[in-house]
Amino acid sequence: MTTQTAVPSATREPQLRGQTVVVLGGSSGIGLAVARLVRAEGADVILTGRNEERLRGAATELGARSSSAFDVSDAAALDRFFADLGEPVDHVMVTAGGPHYARLAEMDHEQMRDALNGHLMLALDVARNAPGRVRPGGSLVLTGGTGARRPAIGLAILSAVTAATPALAASMALELAPIRVNVVAPGFVDTPLSASLLGDRLDERRDELRKTLPIGRVVGPDDVAALAVHLMTNTALTGATYDIDGGQQLLSG
Q1: Is residue 98 predicted with pLDDT exceeding 70?
Q2: pLDDT digits (tens, 9 = 90+) for 132-155
Q3: Residue 160: its pLDDT value, please?
Q4: Secondary structure, 3-state, the chain
Q5: Confidence of residue 62 (pLDDT cuts 50, 70, 90)
Q6: CB 163 within 8 A of CB 157
Q7: Is 119 buried (19+), middle (13-18) or exposed (0-12) by CB count in 10 A?
Q8: CA 185 to chain centre
Q9: What are phi and psi of 180, to 5 degrees?
Q10: Which fold does the domain 20-242 belong to in CATH?
Q11: What pTM value is reported for the model?
Q12: pLDDT for residue 57
């Protein structure tokens, strides 16, 4: 008599099949990586971005359900975007907005307001639009950071945003339940935005991180995307902030 051993299938069902994911800031960097991964996991994707040409390219590449080119820090435009969605979506990923490095004395009131609006007010405006437009059990995934947890000159605004985002998400998780709210908090991520900020110092920074990070490599957009999709699919997670910095915070100095 021969006994056959069952061999587990190497394939699995896509984790987001039949779902719809909105990626705010989905035309490049982390946002584009998230959009690519959710498509690979079977979801329809709706993209926004400020650069119309770049957004059109991303939407074509991914076969996006739709795309909208506008500045998400414009609250009225964001309200119109959510109002025009039609059917509720399952997840919203917020990757729009970049870091702002400057001494307070170098910033005027409008610049400080814009720096805060691009993060905290954006998160609040998204949360305000979520009820009725994100399905129960769905999620909001916000983007925070780890780099400004240590005080430094030029990081006042960024430090405030870094500290406030986890507290904001925790409160939102209670207020918006059963919609879940979580934060991905990257350190340095090798994106076009990082390249534009560092300029000719980019390769030096990459080499430094490869030598010093416990993981022995630089964190990329795909790493952050994998965490974001996990937060969308694991329905036990809400109100928390998840660092993804390759162990950068473990290093002294």
Answers
A1: no
A2: 999 999 999 999 998 778 878 888
A3: 86
A4: CCCCCCCCCCCCCCCCCCCEEEEECCCCHHHHHHHHHHHHCCCEEEEEECCHHHHHHHHHHHCCCEEEECCCCCHHHHHHHHHCCCCCEEEEEECCCCCCCCCHHHCCHHHHHHHHHHHHHHHHHHHHHCECCEEEEEEEEEECCCCCCCCCCCCHHHHHHHHHHHHHHHHHHHHHCCCEEEEEEECCCCCHHHHHHHHHHHHHHHHHHHHHCCCCCCCCHHHHHHHHHHHHHCCCCCCCEEEECCCHHHCCC
A5: very high
A6: no
A7: buried
A8: 9
A9: -95, 150
A10: Rossmann fold (3.40.50)
A11: 0.90
A12: 97
Count Cβ atoms below 10 Å from residue 124 Cβ, excluding itself: 14
Q: Could you tell me which residues are beta bridge partners of residue 143?
A: 184
Task: Look up residue 146 and give its two tokens.
Answer: 């780890």
**Rounded alpha-carbon distances, angstroms, from residue 29 to 52, 114, 173, 174:** 15, 21, 26, 30
What residues pair up with 91 in beta bridges, in sequence order? 21, 139
pLDDT tier for residue 1 given thresholds of 50, 70 and 90: very low
pLDDT tens for each residue of 186-207: 999 998 888 877 888 999 999 9
- Residue among 193, 203, 179, 180 at smallest CA distance from 224: 193
Torsion of CA 185, 27, 193, 250, to 10 degrees: 20
